Amino acid sequence: MDSKLIKQIYYHAQTQPYKEALIIDGQSYTYKDIVDSLQTMATTLQSNAGIEKQHIHYVNNASTTIACIETDSVYEQIILWLYSLQQGLTPIMYHRNMHEHYRAELLRLLETIHIPSNVDFGVLTSGTTGMPKPLWRSESSWIDFFDEQNKVFHIDSSTKMFLHGSFSFTGNTNMILALLWAGATIVTSDKMQPKRWLSHIENYQCSHMYLLPTKLRLLIRFGRNTIDTISYIIAGSQTVDEALITSLQTIYPKMEFILYYGASELNYITYCSGHEWLRYPNTVGKPFDSVQVDIIDESIYVTTDYGICNIELPYTVGDKGYWESGYLMFKGRSGDVVNKGGYKVGILSLENTLQNLPSIDEVAVIAVPDDIRGEEVAAFIVPKQGFTVSDIGNHIHKYVPNMEQPKYIQLLEQLPLTDCSKVDKNLLKEWYNNK
Questions:
Q1: pTM of the shown model
Q2: If you write DSSP's letter for every residue of 115-139 in order, what string do you get?
Q3: Which of 181, 341, 380, 411 lies 20 to 30 A from 390 at CA?
Q4: What is the mean pLDDT of each run of 10 residues along the chain (435 residues)?
């Protein structure tokens, strides 16, 4: 494959060979190191040895050879993905700790599924509602948008960004490749240890952070000192609240918050600043220059050149919204409700309400079976320090409408996260069923 991304990385290796491309738990890899690794892998392939034999499972589809990559090491994930792309294969990254049943189903699907001829790689959905599903992309559907998104996110060759999580998370895949495209530096960790992340952010004087709000809340919990090197924090906008923005501003006093709305099927759709979000709570901002957004029957429809292959435009993922003063306001996803005997409780709306209570640090809401109403609300809550379950119950009764109050509440020290940094609601349902 004549990959523009691979050419760009080779260009950086020639023009700035000793520029740090990746710093993972203190281990530094330059752009030259990345190219050397890719060339070494091409050599070891001829000798039937090397890490690709341990971590790549090849699936022969009628249209292409799919390289299914599975490893916990972020560096190996990136190198194996780039290597597969360079070899003209179709890479797809497995989520870590993916259920064996889902892995077997996915393999059978990959053997028989029709893959469009213009596909260069696949990505997996997060799997928060079942088996992760493959989506197929051309390289240009991301590469040709990098300059626009990097301009909005203030990313250039001087950027040093901390992010965390698997390369399999579509947001991380896109952001890591966009940083390599710009010749920037990525700082990350293979560990789920927020104190270690804070140390890396401070020690390497990171200028940017890219984390979902679930992980930003962990940094707040463990942060003790202000860090004034951070200029920009980039995060998804749907699960942000005022307390989160205010707390982050205290720890990172020089930062500008950039919130975005996007979808794996589409790419980035809209963005706004933290100040704009505070002015219009629950906004997901205004569209990127090359993206058109329309509201049809309350659903958000997107027209873009940067979606998955063979997508029918305009496209909707089922999200609901409306316009207010030129800003797109997000109302949640169609069907993401608890039906309590005919009374519909919006899960996102209830989570936002609970998140803003003074006794709650983090919260996740799920629908659970109920013999009388059909469904009920269960809330899993991380309390703020010093607050008890009684305090939380009092606040819920005071501020949450009676029909929306959770029937079941469980306190946790930390919400479980998927490999994609989203709350693992499948696991929460298992916990509820096993209670």
A1: 0.87
A2: --TT--EEEE---TTSS--EEEE-T
A3: 341
A4: 91 97 96 94 61 79 92 92 95 86 87 92 81 92 97 98 93 96 97 92 97 89 87 86 89 95 94 94 93 95 96 93 95 78 82 90 89 87 91 92 90 85 85 83
